Amino acid sequence: MLERRVTDVLNHMTVSDLDHMHQISSFLLPSKALVPRPPPGSPSHLVKPTHNRFFSSKLSKMNGDTVIADVTDPTTYANYTQIASEHIDFDWSIDFESKIVHGSATHLFHVKEDGVKEVILDIMALDIQRVEVEGIVVKYEIGPKHEVMGSALHIPLSNPPKSGSKFKATIYYKTTEGCTALQWLEKEQTQGKKFPYLFSQCQPIYARSLTPVQDSPSVKITYSAKVKSVLPALLSAVRVSPPSNVVHGGKVIGKDVVAYAYEQPVPIPSYLIAIAAGNVVYRAFPPIEGKEWTSGIWAEPELIDAAYWEFSEDTARFLAKEETIVPPYRFKVYDLLVLPPSFPYGGMENACLTFLTPTLLAGDRTLVDVVVHELTHSWFGNGVTHAHATHFWLNEGWTTYMERLLLEKLHSPAERGFSFLIGSKSLADALKLYEDQPKYQRLVIEFARGEDPDDAYSTIPYEKGSNFILHLERTLGGLDVFLPYIYDYVKTFQGKSISTKQWKDHLYAFYANNPEKVKALDSVDWDAWFFGEGTSLPVKMEYDTTLAQEAYALAERWAESRSDSDLSQFKESDMNSFNSNQKVVFLERLQSLPTLPASHVTHLGKIYHLSDTPNAEIRLRFYELALADPESQTAKQFTEEALKWAVGDDGTGIIKGRMKFCRPVFRAASKVDKELAKKTFVKNKTSFHPIAQKLIEKDLGLA
Ligand code: BES
Ligand code: ZN
């Protein structure tokens, strides 16, 4: 029990023990960080702990209470507890021909301890050319490369600065082909097919392959950027110039170099640094009266109408609704960017500029919940940030809980229940997938140094996390009691990075004056929620199933018809009243029942248009149903079609780069026909984002 152990050890130490330990181990970190990479295939690919895991644990004042900060971030080399980056000034040029970003990053460092001899930054696949400290060229050192962590960039400080002082260091560098954060697209891979495209994905630990940085969410920085590009460039910040509505500053797209200037005045973690450049245009959403923030959408010109239609109704409305629950939106701008199809996520909450998969353009506004999710991160994640991968659930669990609360407030309580219900299926699948790695079934995961947080990525932190918070809401007596707490949680911690323990301490502190509520909190099985393994939640949760009933009933009818050869009782009109989520639930329900004959699956796919729908959420569930039993005739019949859909070899030419869609298809297909799955992937590998490539390779046993 991580939390228990850490607190137990710390509770038996004196302040000076801790300080002493802190000094010794932080001192040891730099030289010991140069640990050679273990040979590939060795039982542990992990970096051996280079320092006492408690090295940065120290007593600190928080809201008047004394709390113990947990262990430091296991995924970074940075000595951020000694020296913290506060601001970065980027000066970049994008070279689409050679597919590199080159330029410099100037950090403003804040010294936290006397006598620190070096700054350590994270880098991965970067070509470092020169490092200057306060304008003077220094001799830097680069540690060995670790597959997951990248390398430590050691910048010596010849005159160790005093605690409290500040200084600047500039790193001149180029990105390289191996930069996992960046995908460079050929013009054929875009909607317009006229210009290339570049975009980044820094979460969880890829910012280090875009820029030298203290790549930990425990460090928050402001940033400014100047980016020279022949195509419009967007960053996760507020645009300074040229104006968003003057395309490419009035210059010729694809030919003239334009300098884009951006400013991010709100401190953000490194994983929210983001860049995209391509032939994109902007359209503002109608402003909301009384709001100082603006909202709008970016997309390639060919998609801007569809993109605007899909999201213009809801985005600003939901943002405004969220402001009735939590403190006001702080980032001034909330824009959306619709990316090309290889974007590996549904959405990514980059500050000021949420990145979205184009698969959300369903033409019926049904997938807007992804936008609701991403805008909610503005508070839960971008405001109150998880300290590191162990506490990732604080970001996603809270965001998922809030996303569903907004659905209740703006639609109906039934919508909230329905969303939890859909989530429970994906939770069950994820828990099953990790049966052999029960550690990843936990909400709070203790990562070893060098362990890849992407290996643990699943819907577990989302679903277990949001159910946990829903359980707390119910245990404490419902929304009336819970809403003031939510506000106070954000108010207390926005701008900070926190651990699970800090979150829990604050929750107790909020209700401290109310013995009945404290008693309610004491009744919660905290250990089971935090560290429980296995395939079910610690508490059986009940949800509103109103919207699911019809879908369940239809699924039952199909299940009962298993041995019928005459299927004329089923009509296209059976689904007339279904929205797309109900279709999803219908297909998921069928998955949990014994496999239907191939002829039935083919028939239901056809009559309800589930096997040719452009809605990827539905199409995925259809293939999951068809491939559920790898030995079945149904699976054999649909494997090739499912793979073709995933790689865009289905006449559309559109790859399903979103990992939520392509990974399950490759995984399911490989259980039916491993060779075909591998062959299909290898042939199309470079169309996928580097992160997706890496994870699909692991899934298929190719890495
Ligand atoms: N922040 C995540 C995406 C992410 C998480 C990227 C961890 C890299 C590492 C984003 O907010 C997210 O959760 N996206 C979901 C949206 C869904 C839950 C509505 C997705 O992409 O599926
Ligand atoms: Zn999220």
UniProtKB/TrEMBL annotation:
UniProtKB keywords: Cytoplasm, Hydrolase, Metal-binding, Metalloprotease, Protease, Zinc
GO cellular component: cytosol
Family matches, as Pfam families: Leuk-A4-hydro_C, Peptidase_M1, Peptidase_M1_N
Locations listed in the record: Cytoplasm
CDD domains from the UniProt entry: M1_LTA4H
GO MF annotation terms: aminopeptidase activity; epoxide hydrolase activity; metallopeptidase activity; zinc ion binding
Cofactor: how and how many bound: Binds 1 zinc ion per subunit.
Cofactor(s) demanded: Zn(2+)
Record-listed a peptide binding positions: Q201, C202, Q203, P344, Y345, G346, G347, M348, E349, R658, M659, K660
Residues holding Zn(2+): H373, H377, E396
Location of the Peptidase M1 leukotriene A4 hydrolase/aminopeptidase C-terminal domain: 546-700
Family that this chain belongs to: Belongs to the peptidase M1 family.
UniProt name for this protein: Peptidase M1 leukotriene A4 hydrolase/aminopeptidase C-terminal domain-containing protein
Organism: Hermanssonia centrifuga
